[in-house]
């Protein structure tokens, strides 16, 4: 059973955002705004995580209260993705995970805060094609995780553990309220940033919504609360880009997969996602890579799922790129 999306004022606000993004003459303005919701739906029981989400965090997402006069150190944290399994390997390819650390001067306790996929990256990037339902099934929720402790070795050995500022306990408590609201309204993970080309004046069609974006939003909020943040080093972050011409809006689940007149489009989308299915044998995986290459590079086609809607991307060189680029502290 699919999670039910609440049709409330947030839907109206999203509609108004889309109307605004079309511009006064009906032309599309970019990037498409990320859709927010009134509250987070329960995760579907079909979705399973290889590793449990936030195993040592508070089950209800609560963040401890600090005394207003406390001095809380803020740390920039970065480490290779899946370092616990692959060590520094993905770090050498600049595929990094980002988080923020906090340390209370009054209690001496340390905390880690991060935002990531509930069901791992692959499930957030591509859907499941289930036999019992024609509509592609997505397990693409992401959420914040706050837990006690900072694993010094994990962050510092192959990445970054750097103090970047101090805030008061009162500022920390205000941030905690903001994080909880941000976490309840921004519910899904988006892997891709889609641009027109790699150049500095490129048009961004869609922006990602991932661990580093959460860190950036938090830093911006803290500076709005008059926190002073600074780093002795260049602050780089991982970005995964798709490059395409102007995207074409296709529709949502109802208009594509439940409308008989859209059957050809529905079949094309399902066929596109088939090579990215999970749990393939080695031979199937090799064949799937060849099929994905043909779709994206030779046929220059990509179907993007964004805001629970489908878009077609007319792909162009260099098609896909992983970068590690500077985003200065605010």
Automatic annotation (TrEMBL):
InterPro entries from the xrefs? CLN5 (IPR026138)
State one Pfam family annotation.
Answer: CLN5
Kindly state which reaction or reactions the protein catalyses: 2 1-(9Z-octadecenoyl)-sn-glycero-3-phospho-(1'-sn-glycerol) = 1-(9Z-octadecenoyl)-sn-glycero-3-phospho-(3'-(9Z-octadecenoyl)-1'-sn-glycerol) + sn-glycero-3-phospho-(1'-sn-glycerol); S-hexadecanoyl-L-cysteinyl-[protein] + H2O = L-cysteinyl-[protein] + hexadecanoate + H(+); 2 1-acyl-sn-glycero-3-phospho-(1'-sn-glycerol) = 1-acyl-sn-glycero-3-phospho-(3'-acyl-sn-1'-glycerol) + sn-glycero-3-phospho-(1'-sn-glycerol); 2 1-octadecanoyl-sn-glycero-3-phospho-(1'-sn-glycerol) = 1-octadecanoyl-sn-glycero-3-phospho-(3'-octadecanoyl-1'-sn-glycerol) + sn-glycero-3-phospho-(1'-sn-glycerol)
Q: Name one GO molecular function term.
A: palmitoyl-(protein) hydrolase activity
| Signal peptide stretch | 1-21
Which keywords does the record carry? Glycoprotein, Signal
Q: Name one GO biological process term.
A: aerobic respiration
One of the record's GO cellular component terms: lysosomal membrane
Keyword Signal in annotation: yes
The entry's function note states: Catalyzes the synthesis of bis(monoacylglycero)phosphate (BMP) via transacylation of 2 molecules of lysophosphatidylglycerol (LPG). BMP also known as lysobisphosphatidic acid plays a key role in the formation of intraluminal vesicles and in maintaining intracellular cholesterol homeostasis. Can use only LPG as the exclusive lysophospholipid acyl donor for base exchange and displays BMP synthase activity towards various LPGs (LPG 14:0, LPG 16:0, LPG 18:0, LPG 18:1) with a higher preference for longer chain lengths.
- Entry's family note: Belongs to the CLN5 family.
Q: What is this protein called?
A: Bis(monoacylglycero)phosphate synthase CLN5
What organism is the protein native to? Hucho hucho
């Amino acid at each position: 059973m699919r999670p039910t999306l609440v049709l409330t004022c947030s839907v109206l606000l999203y509609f108004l955002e889309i109307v605004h993004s079309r511009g006064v003459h009906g032309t599309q303005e970019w990037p498409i705004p990320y859709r927010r919701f009134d509250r987070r739906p329960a995760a579907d029981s079909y979705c399973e995580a290889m590793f449990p989400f936030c195993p040592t965090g508070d089950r209800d997402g609560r963040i401890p209260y600090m005394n207003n006069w406390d001095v809380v150190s803020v740390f920039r944290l970065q480490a290779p993705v899946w370092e616990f399994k692959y060590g520094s390997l993905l770090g050498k390819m600049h595929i990094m995970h980002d988080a923020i650390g906090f340390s209370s001067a009054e209690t001496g306790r340390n905390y880690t805060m991060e935002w990531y996929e509930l069901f791992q990256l692959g499930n957030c990037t591509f859907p499941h094609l289930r036999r019992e339902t024609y509509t592609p099934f997505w397990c693409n929720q992401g959420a914040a995780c706050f837990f006690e402790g900072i694993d010094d070795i994990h962050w510092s050995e192959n990445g970054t553990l750097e103090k970047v500022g101090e805030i008061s306990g009162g500022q920390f408590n205000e941030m905690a309220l903001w994080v909880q609201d941000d976490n309840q309204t921004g519910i899904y993970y988006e892997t891709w940033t889609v641009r027109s080309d790699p150049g500095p004046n490129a048009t961004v069609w869609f922006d990602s919504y991932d661990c580093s974006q959460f860190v950036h939003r938090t830093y911006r909020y803290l500076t709005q609360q008059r926190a002073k943040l600074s780093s002795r080093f260049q602050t780089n972050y991982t970005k995964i880009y798709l490059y395409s011409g102007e995207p074409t809006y296709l529709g949502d689940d109802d208009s594509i997969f439940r409308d008989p007149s859209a059957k050809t489009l529905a079949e094309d989308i399902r066929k596109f996602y088939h090579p990215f299915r999970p749990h393939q044998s080695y031979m199937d995986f090799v064949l799937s890579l060849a099929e994905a290459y043909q779709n994206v590079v030779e046929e220059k086609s990509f179907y993007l799922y964004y805001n629970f809607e489908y878009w077609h991307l007319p792909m162009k060189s260099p098609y896909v790129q992983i970068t590690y680029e500077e985003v200065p502290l605010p």
